[in-house]
């Protein structure tokens, strides 16, 4: 029997997801169920996520997804220790659907409700997948965020750097749109990049070498658009070369900032037995980026922890796990917990 199973619900963007996470006898976290339904097809014709369509799709799918997760876990609601749902940041319509569903289950069963910050879900995922102690350095790279965080403990996140313009996932998505590849852009750019020549187009590495730990990707995006316009009309080979050149520039920029952050991390924490650089968020699924970070971590004598791709992109296992850590720390919320479109860590 698994201890303290928590149901997690995620509806902040275009994935309707439910999962159950508990602990085994040794105390290690266990994913008992992890169901994700992507709405990609619903939004495909619009070139991006349409909030109203997303909210309606969550309403239609969520009950069935929750039931599927409970069935996969082989549990009934009465077996749960608590219910956790993402209450921000994200699209308000979807957040309301997930939060109301989670609160209704909690109220009906007399269970605690836990309001989870989506970013905290990403930030703690490395602890779900790997045995990992606090503190660790975290690179959070998703569709909405690009941040370097020092994770000191549960709820104790120190932001060392952030993007001054676009998030990296957003830059991948815009690159895909420009090159007429389907959304979400990241996986499609990566797929096309595999056949491309990364040295064909010389794209900039914004903020390279600067002491501060911030990121910038809008200059890269503009340079890519200019390169694409100059090479038009684009053959399949041109598209592959543009994707490869963009991906290489993105990986390089990330590696450069990470190198600086690792220096600071090693200086501030010289005595850690197991110093770790963890990555999380959808862009962490990218293999070229993982390889670049692996190289930086190795040079700094730090272990890279990169969760499996399916746990880097949006899912509810990370929400259930964040709920589990919060539950164990006594951090439960009332049914009046609000949803928040903006909610910095
Ligand atoms: O974490 P996530 O699923 O949702 C947010 O919280 O934003 O991240 C989604 C982002 C999208 O921009 C998507 O294009 C990007 O992650 N992404 C990737 C890859 N897979 C997803 N970017 C680059 N390479 C990938 N393989
Ligand atoms: Zn996310």
TrEMBL record:
Ranges for domain Gcp-like: 31-321
Record: residues binding substrate: 140-144, 173, 186, 190, 286
EC number: 2.3.1.234
Catalytic activity, reaction form: L-threonylcarbamoyladenylate + adenosine(37) in tRNA = N(6)-L-threonylcarbamoyladenosine(37) in tRNA + AMP + H(+)
Major place of residence: cytoplasm
Binding note for cofactor: Binds 1 Fe(2+) ion per subunit.
Segments traversing the membrane: none
Gene Ontology biological-process annotations: tRNA threonylcarbamoyladenosine modification
Location within or outside the cell: Cytoplasm
Family: Belongs to the KAE1 / TsaD family.
Record-given protein name: tRNA N6-adenosine threonylcarbamoyltransferase
Native source species: Aurantimonas aggregata
Lineage of origin: Bacteria, Pseudomonadati, Pseudomonadota, Alphaproteobacteria, Hyphomicrobiales
The gene coding this protein: tsaD
């Amino acid at each position: 029997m698994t201890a303290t199973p928590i149901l997690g619900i995620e509806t902040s963007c275009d994935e309707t997801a439910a999962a159950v996470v508990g602990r085994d006898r040794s105390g290690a976290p266990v994913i008992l169920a992890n169901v994700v339904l992507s709405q990609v097809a619903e939004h495909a014709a619009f070139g991006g996520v349409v909030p109203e369509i997303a909210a309606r799709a969550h309403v239609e799918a969520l009950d069935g997804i929750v039931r599927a997760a409970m069935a996969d876990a082989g549990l009934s609601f009465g077996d749960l220790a608590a219910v956790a749902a993402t209450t921000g940041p994200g699209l308000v319509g979807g957040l309301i659907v997930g939060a109301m569903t989670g609160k209704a289950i909690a109220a009906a069963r007399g269970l605690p409700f836990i309001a989870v910050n989506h970013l905290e879900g990403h930030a703690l995922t490395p602890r779900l997948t790997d045995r990992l102690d606090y503190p660790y350095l975290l690179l959070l790279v998703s569709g909405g965020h690009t941040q370097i965080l020092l994770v000191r403990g549960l709820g104790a996140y120190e932001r060392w750097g952030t993007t001054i313009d676009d998030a990296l996932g957003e830059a991948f998505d815009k690159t895909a749109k420009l090159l007429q590849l389907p959304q979400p852009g990241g996986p499609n750019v990566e797929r096309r990049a595999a056949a491309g020549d990364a040295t064909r187009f010389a794209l900039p590495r914004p903020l390279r070498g600067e002491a501060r730990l911030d990121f910038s990707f809008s200059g890269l995006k503009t340079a890519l658009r200019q390169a694409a316009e100059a090479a038009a009309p684009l053959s399949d080979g041109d598209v592959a070369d543009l994707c490869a050149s963009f991906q290489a520039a993105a990986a390089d920029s990330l590696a450069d900032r990470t190198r600086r952050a690792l220096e600071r991390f090693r200086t501030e924490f010289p005595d850690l037995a197991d110093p770790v650089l963890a990555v999380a968020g959808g862009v962490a699924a990218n293999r070229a980026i993982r390889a670049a970070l692996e190289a930086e971590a190795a040079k700094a004598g730090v272990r890279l922890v990169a969760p499996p791709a399916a746990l880097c992109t949006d899912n509810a296992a990370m929400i259930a796990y964040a709920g589990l850590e919060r539950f164990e720390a006594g951090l439960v919320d009332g049914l009046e917990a609000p949803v928040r479109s903006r909610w910095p860590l």
